[in-house]
Every structure is written in structure tokens, then in C-alpha cells.
Amino acid sequence: MKKNKIFYLIGSLVLIIAVAAGITYAAFTDKAKVLGSTFSVGSANLMFLEDLAMGTDPRNYRDELAGPTFENIGPGWTQDYLVKLISMASSRITVSTNANYETANDPEDLRSDIFVEIIKWSDMNQNGTVDEGEEISVVGKKTIIKWKTEGFTLGDLFYGQTMGLILRFSAPSISESKQGASATFDFEFNSIQS
Q: For residues 19 and 33, what is the distance between their CA atoms, to the nearest angstrom?
């Protein structure tokens, strides 16, 4: 009996030492942490330069511009409208353009007779006017209807880059029945992150 008590006492002591060693062993742990992870969503911000000769001063950036007024349109008429876009997007964007209108604002269907030709423009001397040698390439030419339904893809821009465009409007022919007609159209420039 005494032997059993000794074995029981030794077994209990071994068990207590093993448990104490296990607790001590488990107490040594460590962690590595990544703290304060921040996620920010990018933007596809596209803006206009209001004063074409002023350059990329932030005071010159606009989301909207007042549209031009074209008067005395007749067969063979043509007139240019200049635009400079700037990307304030956080990454590369692809730029496109469409016309936008409501049929009620064009009751005589001038949208079928007026064309827009879009030409890339590099204002090398930054004077805000198209000088010889500054027309780079023709993007395409469409009626206002096709500009609305098909649009134009203008290419890519990165943050801070500008894109100069000549919008060359023309009316090769207008029927006599449309004398005195008027219409209102908006031009939209769109950007999508690419």
C-alpha cells in the first residue's frame, strides 16, 4: 500500500510538472500585425481647360463649358470649336465623346444635316489657337445623329495629361425647307478607367 502511495505521489508530481511545463511553453507566443490598412477608390475625373491659352493651372479647370452659338448656317458652312481636356483621374482613362439631344430641341431635324469632324490638336506654342502644323490626326467625321448613337473613341490619358481637340462642324447641304430652323445639342466627353 505504501508502494502504491509512493507511485501515486510520484505520478501526481510528474503530472503537475508536465502541466506546468506545458503552460509555461504555451505562454511564449508572438504576433506580427499590419495596422491601419487604407483603401481608396480611384477616380476617372476628366475636366476642361476653360482658357485654352492659360495652361494647366487648377483655377482653369471646369467640369462644364457653355456651348458655342453658330449662326447663319447654310450649304457649305463650316466652323471650328476648340476644346482642351485634362485628366485628373488616379489612373489611365479612355476618353470618348457623344452628342446628346432631345428631339424636341431639334424639330426640323438639323441633326441629319450637320456634321462634326474631330481632329486631334497639339497646341505646341500654347497660344490657344490652331496654327499651321498643329492638326495631328483626324479621328473621324459623323452627323450629329451618328455622334450620338456611335460616338468617337479619342484615346487614353494619364493623370495631368491634356488632349486638344478641334471639333469641325459643317453642313455640306441644307434643304431650302429648313430656312430659319434652329436646334440645341450638347457634347459630352466621357472617361472610363482602363
A: 30
- Report the alpha-carbon distance of residue 13 to residue 21 in Å, rounded: 12
Read off the pLDDT of residues 33-67 as tens digits, 9 standing for 90 and up: 666 655 556 678 899 999 999 989 999 999 998 88
CB 82 within 8 A of CB 165: yes
- What class has domain 46-193? mainly beta
Alpha carbon distance 7, 20 (integer Å): 20
CA 144/CA 87 separation, integer angstroms: 25
Q: How far apart are CA 141 and CA 106, in angstroms?
A: 20
d(CA 95, CA 157): 7
Mind listing the pLDDT tens digit for each residue in 69-127? 999 888 999 999 999 999 998 899 999 999 998 889 889 999 999 999 999 999 999 99
pTM score? 0.78
Q: Is 152 exposed, middle or buried (0-12, 13-18, 19+ CB in 10 A)?
A: buried
Q: Report CA dihedral (40, 42, 48, 50) to the nearest 10 degrees.
A: 10
Domain boundaries, the chain: 46-193
| CA 49 – CA 62 distance, rounded (Å) | 6
C-alpha cell at 58: 487648377
Task: Report d(CA 182, CA 71) in Å as an integer.
Answer: 9
Three-state DSSP class for residue 27: coil
